[in-house]
């Protein structure tokens, strides 16, 4: 299989390296000139728990991209999706396709440019971190699911799954419900974003007894929107969506067991902290959180739902990006206080936030009103920036 990886950071680089090692023809495309130069000079090295290996494959800057392209894995951050897709589109073969290896609902954005028939969905939950030019840390396995937007199990989805099973993750699977996996990831990722508010491992925050009621309702806010959209979220890697939904459907024992499994899953990974944490603390660059929260806000608003905890996390992340807030357990405690005010003091309380006092949506956020997500495609979407670095990496 010929595969072009656009965004050769943590996720794209890992996928491409394993495929290249298995004999597939892989071309890496990335906006980071030093990363491209390192791959061309020394190859791309993947460091993991069980092995370290280096593959040799051509690497290009976005301006050097030429077609016709068959299968393209898009692994840029969500705010770069439109520009990266527009760069690919002129070179994409009529029977080619872009697979979104990202967070968010980027499949819709890609389909708006190249058409639904040339768009494939993917859900990614393995962990990886970009370390330096030409070097990526593979944190450990996690779910990897491929699916057509209309739910059909097509030959091209089967081919992708077969290639990824053989080359990378043996449990890679096809699905007729890719939107269910993407919504499930959104709910889980809402909790992971909260873990980036403190300089501590994901597992430590998920295991914190005081934080758990807030974390449960954070995920439940997303799941309530999914339900309003008519989507059945799927579970993965210990995350059990049905256990997190708002009471009265919530089962506290199942909720605790699911959180325990997520703690174990994350403790077993070399990637101890989220991609959002890494953007904030290591790479010191803007995260994709504002865009993701903006997507959720728009969808919640269409159904008359409020997402006060999701909004508060987005606001806090934005303040850390701006340097007006520090990572601290105090941030988690502020979210706990907001949760108690909106939903009640424990995980057995709560409900979709239709009735929540809108004033609570700004509580605990010194910065003021709800954050406004940049318009899709706005911001740093220059031609060279569009294919920048790491994309989906656990959050």
Structural write-up:
By secondary structure, the protein is of the alpha/beta class. The protein has helices spanning 10-21, 33-42, 81-88, 106-114, 155-167, 178-195, 202-207, 212-228, 241-244, 252-267, 275-281, 289-302, 308-322, 329-343, and strands at 2-6, 25-29, 44-47, 52-55, 59-60, 69-74, 92-100, 119-124, 127-132, 135-140, 144-148, 173-174. Strands 5-2-1-6-7-8-11-12 form an 8-stranded mixed β-sheet, with helices on both faces. Mean pLDDT is 88; it is low at 354-395.
Give descriptors for this structure.
395 residues, alpha/beta, eight-stranded mixed beta sheet, four-stranded mixed beta sheet, 14 helices, 15% strand, globular, disordered C terminus
String of helices and strands:
EHEHEEEEHEHEEEEHEHHHHHHHHH
Per DSSP E runs of 2 or more residues, the count of β-strands stands at 12
Low-confidence stretches: 354-395
Strand order of the largest sheet: 5-2-1-6-7-8-11-12
Q: In oligomeric terms, what are we looking at?
A: single chain
The residue-averaged pLDDT reads 88
Query: Can you count the helices?
Result: 14
Could you say which overall geometry the principal axes of the C-alpha atoms support?
A: globular
Intertermini distance: 28 Å
Kindly estimate the percentage of residues that lie in beta strands according to DSSP: 15-25%
| Cα gyration radius (Å) | 20 Å
Quick summary of this structure?
This protein is of the alpha/beta class and 395 residues long. It is built from 14 helices and twelve strands. An eight-stranded mixed β-sheet has the order 5-2-1-6-7-8-11-12, with helices on both faces. A four-stranded mixed β-sheet has the order 4-3-10-9.
């Amino acid at each position: 299989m010929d595969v072009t990886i656009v965004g050769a950071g943590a996720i794209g680089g890992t996928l491409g390296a394993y495929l290249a090692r298995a004999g597939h023809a892989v071309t890496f495309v990335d906006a980071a000139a030093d990363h491209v130069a390192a791959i061309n000079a020394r190859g791309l090295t993947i460091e993991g728990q069980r092995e370290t290996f280096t593959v040799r494959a051509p690497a290009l800057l976005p301006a050097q991209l030429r077609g016709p392209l068959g299968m393209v894995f898009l692994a840029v951050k969500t705010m770069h999706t439109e520009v990266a897709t527009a760069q690919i589109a002129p070179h994409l073969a009529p029977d080619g396709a872009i697979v979104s290896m990202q967070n968010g609902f980027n499949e819709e954005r890609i389909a708006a440019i190249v058409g639904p028939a040339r768009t494939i969905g993917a859900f990614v939950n393995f962990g990886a971190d970009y370390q330096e030019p030409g070097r990526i840390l593979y944190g450990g396995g996690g779910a990897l699911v491929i699916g057509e937007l209309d739910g059909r199990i097509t030959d091209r989805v089967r081919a992708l799954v077969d290639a990824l099973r053989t080359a990378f993750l043996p449990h890679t699977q096809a699905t007729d419900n890719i939107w269910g996996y993407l919504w499930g990831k959104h709910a889980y990722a809402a909790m992971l974003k909260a873990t980036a508010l403190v300089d501590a491992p994901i597992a430590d925050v998920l295991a914190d007894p005081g934080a758990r009621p807030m974390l449960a309702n954070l995920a439940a806010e997303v799941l309530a929107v999914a339900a309003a959209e008519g989507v059945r979220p799927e579970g993965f890697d210990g995350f059990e969506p049905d256990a997190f939904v708002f009471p009265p459907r919530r089962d506290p024992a199942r909720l605790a067991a699911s959180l325990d499994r997520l703690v174990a899953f994350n403790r077993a990974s070399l990637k101890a902290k989220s991609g959002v944490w890494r953007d904030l603390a290591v790479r010191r660059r803007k995260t994709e959180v504002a865009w993701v929260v903006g997507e959720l806000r728009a969808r919640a608003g269409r159904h008359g739902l409020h997402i006060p905890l999701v909004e508060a996390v987005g606001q806090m992340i934005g303040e850390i990006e701006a340097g007006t807030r520090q990572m601290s357990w105090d941030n988690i405690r502020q979210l706990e206080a907001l949760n108690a005010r909106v939903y009640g003091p424990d995980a057995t309380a709560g409900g979709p936030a239709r009735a929540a006092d809108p004033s609570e949506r700004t509580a605990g956020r010194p910065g003021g009103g709800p954050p406004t997500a940049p318009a899709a495609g706005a911001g740093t979407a220059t031609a060279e920036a569009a294919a920048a670095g790491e994309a989906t990496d656990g959050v």
